[in-house]
Structure formats: C-alpha cells, structure tokens
Amino acid sequence: MNRRLFALLFVLIVASGFALRLFLIEARPLHHDEGVNGYFAAQVLNGNSWRYNPENYHGPLPFYLIAVAFAIFGETVFSLRIMHVLFGSLMPVLLLPFRKSLGDKGTLFAAFLLSFSPSLFYYSMDAIHEIFFAFFILASIVFLFSFLENGDKVFLYAGIASLSFLFTVKEGAFLVAPAILLLFLLFFNSKKKNKLSDILSNAKTIIICIVIFITIFTLLFSSFFANIQGIADAFKAPLLWSEKMTGHSGHEKHGLYYLEIVAFSDLPILLLGLLGAFIALRRKNGIMLATFAFFLILFIGASLPKYKVPWGVINFIPLLAMLAGYFIESIARKVKNLGLFYSLLAIVMVFVFWQAIFLSAFKSASQENKLAYVQTTNEAKQIVERIETLQNEKHVKIAIINKQSVWPLPWWLKRFNVSYYNAETISEFDVSAYDIVLIEAAYSHKVKNANNFEKERFALRPGLAMDAFFRME
User: Fold this and answer.
1) 8 Å CB contact between 352 and 116
2) Per the confidence metrics, is the pTM higher than 0.85?
3) C-alpha torsion angle, residues 183, 108, 278, 288 (rounded to 10)
4) Which tens digit of pLDDT belongs to each residue from 118-155?
5) Three-class secondary structure assignment of 71-101
6) Torsion of CA 193, 196, 198, 199, to 10 degrees
C-alpha cells in the first residue's frame, strides 16, 4: 500500500472516530463520578483551591485537563468530556511506531478497532480517569518497545514520560508500570545487538529519564508546588485503594467478570486478538508476544481482586486490538480469495461500528447495557433539562432532600440556588418556600403544603427513586 493511500485511510479513521464522538458527546446522562470530577476540576480554576487527596479521588492529571477545557469552553457537559474524547480519539495514532510490525492493513484495522471498539468508544465520552489510564498504558508500551526496536532515545524519553503520566492518572500505576518495565527487560534485553544494559549504562540517558519522570510526577502531585504534601500522599494512595480493592466496597464481582464484559461489548476484538496471539506464538514474534503477555498480566491482575467495575476492560482492549490487527495482516498475506476476505472483514467492521453506536447512543443509560454501570437515567436528565428551561435561574429556589448521594445533580444544577437537606433529620418539609423540590421517594411522605405543586417520579439511577415537585404557575 502506498504512503498516500495509507495516510488518507488512517486520517479518515481517526477523524471519523473523533467526529462521531463529538456528535454523541452529550447523548449519555452524566454519571455520578463525572459530576464529582467536574466539581473538583472547577476548584482547580477557583484560585487553585483544589489539592490532591488520595482518600477522596484518583490522580491529579484528569482534573487539570478538565480544568483547561473549562477555562476554554466554560463549565458544560461538552467541556467536561472533551479531553476524554480527544485522548480516546488519538489512541490510534499511538500505533504508528508499530506500523512495521503490524503491517499497513494490520495498522489500519487496529486503528479502526481503537476508534470504534464499543467499550473504548463508550468510555471515551465518560469524564472519569480510565480513558487517560488506558491511553498512557498503550503509549508507554508502544514508545518503550519502539525504542528497543530502533534505538531512538526519543522513544525512550516519551515512554518514561508516559509512565510518569500514568502515575498521575491513577494509583493502579504502582502495579501496572513495574509490569511494563519488567516486560520491557524480559523480552528484549537478550534480543538486541546492543544490550539494553549497555544503552542504559549511559549516565546522561539515565539522568534525563529520571529528570523527566520526577518533573512530571512532582509538578502534578504538588499542584505545581502549591501542595508539596501531595508528593508524599501519592505513595499512600496504593495502600488506601488496596483496602477497597480487597474489602467490601459494594463492587465485588466474580472472577470472570471482565471476560463477561468483553464478550458482551467487544467479542470480535477478543476472538481476533486471541487468534493474533496464536500466530505470534507460532512465528515467535517478539513484539506481539510481549503485547499478549502484557494483556494476560493486565487481565489476570484485574480479575483477581474482588473490586471490579466495567470500565476496567478498556485498559487491555487496546492490546487485543493490536493483536487483532496483526492477525488480519498475517491472513491478508496468505489468503487467495481477497474478495471473500475483504467481505468478511467488512462484516466484522460493520458489526463493531454498529455495536459502538448502539451502546453509546441508543442504550447509553439502559440497564441492558453492561457498560452502563450505576448509570444516571434519562429520566433524571429530562428532569434537569426541564429545570434548565426556567428563566431567571438566580431567583429559582431549589431544595434537594436526600439520604443517598445525588450526584451528578449538584454539578448539573450548579448555576441555580440550591439548598440541601438530610432526609433522615427532617420531620417534615414545607415545599411552599421553594419553586422546585427534589426528594428521595422513600421520604416523600415528609412533604407538606404541596397542593400547588406538580409531582413527577423519576429514577436518578437504578435503585434510587426520587420525586420532583414543580410549582404550578
């Protein structure tokens, strides 16, 4: 395939993935965690009042990225998610250093899978930490392995930077990053003409790597030197989160949970990826064997703890996509009936594309969608949209009465005058003092003077019914 055609197809894949994400960026209601992350990101802009706290949230990088979007676009759902869309859309670009190993067809197919994998597509429009974590896992692997292939130290420095950014996204990096470095050593130290130990014995190289890693780590965890304690706190996070991962958090799942999620959302990628691993094993392809080995490390490592959430799958889906691309390239070189081959390939691509659209647009908040985890409902989104149509929002008085967490409502309604009450501590509540009252349905019996109000029941999320009282004009 000539360079111009490859470049055209590659840009088309990446651009279409980005454009479709932009089109659907607000289709899914805000998740509980997105509202919380939006609140903290807004604090970053509020005189830099936000400080890293390992007990309350993950690493600092996502909050600063969201804050940049807020500064440019204002505090909207679009700006809350745009950085996640951007990083999710750019993941295929990370494959370019592997073009020689994957081949042109394999690179293009893997790029398509990274653009439209249903789980990657879904969670790249979700303002949580995971898409950044998946991005820097893939970036670390690609850059470090590319350095070992061609010896260009630019890739080494980019890989070290990616590892450092990985730490600033989520505490899971304390497990994942050493695994990447171990694989880096095991698979390639004995295969290089110049031993890795010889390359790394260069003092200047080692110093540059250390400076890059420490600079990124220090700047972000210290809130750009406004909170030096944040650097020490970063090392407390793995211990704090290990208790949640192994204890009773309410997110306990069976051992094959992630296999169940991948089979639901990304079955073609799983099957083709495993076939790619089989071919890599037969051909003893070092790059692809390393990719498969790291997939196994991630998959098994994520499956062992009791704590599991569905977005964990996107950390290893990119590795399966690379292996799937390798499989397609290998088969394309041997197949005799190209017409049949491309027809079958087109069917797979159409299925993957449709699954991505179906789960992210039509079933984004449905309980039938295994990716929609404790998801805010469309009913709640409609209630908020009704409130947002009201004029003179500064004069609209809203009360929220709850026992359980009602996020993302506080972020959704941040421009309104909202008062919050504990549903358990009030004996009765006079709604006549407010224009709108949102109350957990289990406590609606405490409401009085509601004759002049229209009542509408909605589910904030599965298992949490609420009643909305709107004053009738």
Assistant:
1) yes
2) yes
3) -20
4) 999 999 999 999 999 999 999 999 999 888 878 788 99
5) HHHCCCHHHHHHHHHHHHHHHHHHHHHHHHH
6) 100
